[in-house]
Specification:
With about 130 residues, the protein is an all-beta fold. It has no helices and 12 strands. The chain has a 6-stranded mixed β-sheet with strand order 2-12-9-4-5-6, with no helix packed on it. Strands 1-3-8-7 form a 4-stranded antiparallel β-sheet, with no helix packed on it. β5 and β6 form a beta hairpin. It is globular, with a radius of gyration of 13 Å.
């Protein structure tokens, strides 16, 4: 399994970015794919997860209404459209397979057991 993330960059608060995740080496449309992020000095956290068909999506509360996950199975690619970006969204963003979303008392949590991490793409939100 291989994941290659792209589309990151420097953007001002309130701006938008669209991340792409190109996947290879497996039967892409059979797997949930998720976006995760890791900010400096913090643990990696799940952001959003999409089912293999694309018919089911979940995202954590802090990005709900701002981030949208989608996928194009014909292109083996998953996207993360990020709008209304905030400085706290600054992180390295990764995509990976085998994600799942759980409803916890504190909100939705996105997790994975996969170890097939790519290099990620840096997103910096700053004025």
């Amino acid at each position: 399994l291989q994941f290659v993330e792209s589309g990151g960059g420097l953007v001002q608060p309130g701006g938008s970015l669209r991340l792409s995740c190109a996947a290879s080496g497996f039967n892409f449309d059979s797997y949930n794919i998720g976006w995760f992020r890791q900010a400096p000095g913090k643990e990696r956290e799940g952001v959003s997860c999409i089912s293999g068909s694309g018919g089911s999506t979940n995202e954590i509360d802090s990005v709900k209404g701002r981030f949208t996950i989608s996928r194009d199975n014909a292109k083996n690619t998953v996207y993360l459209q990020m709008n209304s970006l905030k400085p706290e969204d600054t992180a390295v963003y990764y995509c990976v397979d085998d994600c799942a979303a759980f409803i916890e008392p504190h909100g939705i949590e996105v997790v994975t057991t996969s170890k097939d991490w790519g290099q990620g793409t840096q997103v910096t939100v700053s004025s």
